[in-house]
Amino acid sequence: MNTATKYQWMMMIRSKWLITFAVLFAALSSTVIASSGHEASGVFTRSTAALLNLSLLLVPLVSLLAGSLFIAGEKEDGRLSLILTYPISTRSLTLGLYMGSCISLWTVVALGYGSASIALFVTGGTWSTFVFLSFVLTIILTSIFLAIALFVGLVASNRLQALGISLFIWAFFVLFYEFIVLFLLSVVPKQWTIFLFALSIILNPVELVRVWTVAALKSSALFGPQLYEWSKWAESASGQLTFIAIACIWIIVPLFLVNVWMKRGKRYA
């Protein structure tokens, strides 16, 4: 596992476009967070919402592309088939590739938020709870989409197909999903509203992190009076633990499928 992790990390961290994203993310995060420096600590404001939306927009895209294209490239070039012949368990290989990918992207996210924190300090702002919370949840979001990306990279025949699948998944979860949910909420009976709202959170990791952030900041009143009882539950300890459990499922299921595919590939390698 350690060898696979080190290999994956070294290969991904050398990516020029990943470095480019790190610089871009750091610059955008710094600009957004510096503008919120004099706002109340831990409050969900327009500026903090902008930082959250920035992370929800860019992090899933980069995680999907970085993970899927790398694995698809290894598969297309034949290196993955060679690795599968080594005396290493598929579980260790799966976890090694996943952790190597995570460490690479976590480093990028940490650099972005580190730069944002420096910009906040330079501008005389107050380091708020939201900055740390946003960083932690962005790490979780990165971990989820990297797990999905590994599976996409394995099932794709080549890099181009991996690119297409990744862009489709990103567009569905980030761009179109919200409109689909809003449409359904407008046509279903009112007694189904809470159920559909909760289901929409479970089925989309982007919405999971968005709602999780709002609930963790005790700002669930933004969801309106119709969801008041649900909002109070989401802010409670049981609600937060439920969010954690859902995030873990989003990570475990794709990795389980990756391990199954690896076992099948190892059998024929």
UniProtKB/TrEMBL annotation:
Q: Which GO terms describe its cellular component?
A: plasma membrane
UniProt superkingdom: Bacteria
* Keyword terms of this UniProt record: Membrane, Transmembrane, Transmembrane helix
Q: Which residues cross the membrane?
A: 50-73, 105-123, 130-156, 162-185, 192-217, 237-262
Per UniProt, what is one GO molecular function of this protein?
ABC-type transporter activity
Q: Which Pfam families match?
A: ABC2_membrane_2
This protein's name: ABC-type transport system involved in multi-copper enzyme maturation, permease component
Task: Report the source organism.
Answer: Anoxybacillus flavithermus (strain DSM 21510 / WK1)
